[in-house]
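WARN retry 2 of 3 for item q-0093 after timeout on previous attempt; input resubmitted unchanged.
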Amino acid sequence: MIRKAVIICTVLCMTNMMAFTQAKTIDKGQRGHHVQKVQTMLVQQGYLKDSADGIFGRNTELAVRKFQKSKGLAVDGRVGPATMSALEKGSKGSSYSQYTKGAPSKYTRAITMHATAYSSQDPGNGNYTATGSRLKKGIVSVDPKIIPLGTKMYVEGYGYAIADDVGGAIKGHRIDLAFDSRYDALQFGRQNVTVYIL
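OK item q-0093 returned
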């Protein structure tokens, strides 16, 4: 009877330990803010070219493997405690820190909008916005009737930005997010996002 109780206790303890370990691992197929945080750090450190969309897909897995290999970690494409610690250490003091803080806790309103992406490398685009700023990541093209120019915001899956451009096709609840390269803009594609007005 005692032996049976010990076996049951051992099995339960091992099951709980496995569940704890799995909960601490971010893996392919998962979605959410925890995935977006990992992706943002990978983008920031130059391992991921995609946007931080919160979906752990093939490109994110490849970026994790590349990061793990460069840091001498076990290369399994999964973000466990050791990989997360190395990612967080590498993120401190980055010049991209303004884009990696996560969704704000304080904002005036949140709007769901249809987002597209553009860059100065796109055919017909120049290097400057309608207000004269250099076109780069962090600039958003808006309909000034919906979001006034100069408005600071946080865009889900993109980061902190400012409304500093307008476009002929950008009307109503549409925004166009600037990227530093045409490749990055194409990787973002089109998606519905939540825009937090600061």
